[in-house]
Amino acid sequence: MQLFQYVLTIACVGCYAGSNALASEQSDAKGFIDGSSASVNLRAMYQNRDLRNGAANHNAGTKNGYREDSGLGSQWFFDSGYTKGTLGLGVSGLGLASLRFDGGTGRQGNNMFASDSQGHPETAQSKLGGTLNVRISNTVLKYGDQVIQTPVFWSYQARLLPDVATGFYLVSREVAHLTLSAGHFTALRSPTGMWDDSVNGRDRNTGRKRAGLTAADIAVATYDWTPRLSTTVAASDIDDYWRREYFNTRYVYLIDGQHSLSTDFNTYRTRSVGEALGGKNDNVFWSSALGYTFSSHKVTVAFQRGTGKTGYYYGVDGAGTVLLNNPSQWSDFVGEDERSVQLRYDLNMSNYGVPGLTFTSRYMYGWGITTPSGEEGREHELDLELRYVVQSGPAKQLTFRVRNAVYRANDAYNTSIYGADNNDFRLMVEYPISLF
């Protein structure tokens, strides 16, 4: 709780000291009912993963090398307004549901749906949750079920439904250009709902804690020096797993109205603590990217490097907690001692008469990976993505997204160390709707 208490103290001081720096959001509260809003995000998804070079679909318990899943997910959100006065009270509601279209026994395995006791994918899954909210000035404290996105605790959202964390989360914007946040979480529910880590207990034979989140403390600070320069520092303490620190700075230099340069630097430092339930996790990973934008085009080059005794592990702190430059559709390029490079090209078709249409291609190559055999591990991946967002009319913000990845690794790093060679195809249609 120390990280959470530390940021909470700073935020409370900021509520007093920063009250003259920014206008108070709470002073403009519209009331519990008048300030309320609701929305729903619908997402349909199809995914197939073709495992190559003899790899089997172990997730489905079969020898075939093919996984295929499809379904529809809906994410419902409700936020009340805040009561008027110095202290504002409110609530938020969260409803998650998904329905399987396809992906029967023998083909499932893309972590889109839970499996029953017989290994069959569930037809539907759902969860309801909510938070109690308190606001003073520009500081909000929430307790309950939440979708969290920070560099050291990130709810995974690449499937139909997101990770859902349970606990306290505070966000404070009392000082101009500075955002502070902190959290204390005691459970993390996976996108498929296959586990909820709040009650794991201990193994009766060994006395050790069972793997799963029991407590996570996080603290994050972001300062916007200018509209184009920002810095973020963050830290987390995952009980009996690891402690992690994060640093990021990014800058955009405008050459003229058509040209710009951008830089992005990230680093993580991770150390195992307590019973180290996730195994050893002692490493430093950093990455740096340089981008050049000209008219509708952008070219980016990136380099990523890992040092230490292990590769970079995550998951109990959210399956999206890897904000480096080279993580891609399949691989994160975070093997032990791994170095990787990326070449990326982005095209915005607005200037060519198709606003809302974008194309992305990127190639990553990793080498120097330490493996148990002593042979150098190597991997590479090619990603292609086409995305279209409807710009106006009743279907505004309706999004179509097609993604394809081709991943290969050498024998020293393939299958048992990271993952099998595969071709991964995903089609997503997403429609956010504001209800009121």
Automatic annotation (TrEMBL):
Gene3D superfamilies: Porin. The lineage of its organism: Bacteria, Pseudomonadati, Pseudomonadota, Gammaproteobacteria, Pseudomonadales. This is OprD family porin. Belongs to the outer membrane porin (Opr) (TC 1.B.25) family. It comes from Pseudomonas lactis. GO terms for molecular function: porin activity. Pfam families: OprD. InterPro entries: OM_porin_bac, Porin_dom_sf. Keywords: Signal, Transport. GO terms for cellular component: membrane.
